[in-house]
Amino acid sequence: SVSRTALAGILQSSKKLVLSERAGAGRGRTLEFLRRNAANGLSMANLVAGLASILCSLNRQYSYSCWLLLVGFLLDLADGAVARRLDACSPLGAKLDDFADFTTFGLGTALLLQPQGALAGLLVIAYVMAVFARLCFFSAG
Predict the structure, then answer these.
(1) What's phi and psi for 115, nearest 5 deg?
(2) Burial class (CB in 10 A: 0-12, 13-18, 19+), 110
(3) Nearest to 74 by CA among 105, 95, 99, 34
(4) What is the rounded distance in angstroms from the CA atom of residue 105 to the CA atom of residue 132?
(5) Number of domains in the chain
(6) Is residue 65 a part of any domain in this protein?
(7) Is 136 within a domain?
(8) pTM of the complete model
(9) Domain that holds residue 100
(10) Within-domain flag for 118
């Protein structure tokens, strides 16, 4: 009997909380936060895919590394489209996107190439530097 009364009181309190205007404003702030950071979340996912690809290459799991680079590519396509569609472009998002792109397409791809010998190593270093230069000179931010 006491537990039913306590449970009824808790349910009544939570009902008031959910139906209050303040809770509605909190929901609005949450949706605005999600709208503003949807593209950043996709960039973070791209970064994670790039880092996972690097780990797979280091562990000689090259097919997984390739798949993760493909996932990173698709996430990179999506983050720009989402940012423009939701009008949620920001300087932080641009820097995060550039860092994710460098990790995925610069370092991740370079490790997947598995350079053997001095010339191959120099070519891979040149490739990474080219990706870095492209991001430095042509970034959106």
Answers:
(1) -65, 135
(2) buried
(3) 105
(4) 10
(5) 1
(6) no
(7) yes
(8) 0.75
(9) 91-140
(10) yes
23's tokens = 């809770």
> Which amino acid, one-letter code, is at 56?
C
Tens of each residue's pLDDT in the chain, 141 residues: 556 666 566 656 555 544 444 545 677 788 887 778 888 899 999 999 999 999 999 999 999 999 999 999 999 999 888 888 888 778 888 888 999 999 999 999 999 988 889 999 999 999 999 999 998 888 755
Burial of 4 (0-12, 13-18, 19+ CB in 10 A): exposed
Report yes or no on 9 lying in a domain. no
Instruction: Write out the chain in H/E/C secondary structure.
Output: CHHHHHHHHHHHHHHHHHHCHHHHHHHHHHHHHHHHHHHHHHHHHHHHHHHHHHHHHHCCCHHHHHHHHHHHHHHHHHHHHHHHHCCCCCHHHHHHHHHHHHHHHHHHHHHHCCCCCHHHHHHHHHHHHHHHHHHHHHCCC
Token pair belonging to 65: 């590394």
Nearest alpha-carbon partner for 13 in 1, 2, 23: 23
Amino acid in the structure at residue 15 = K
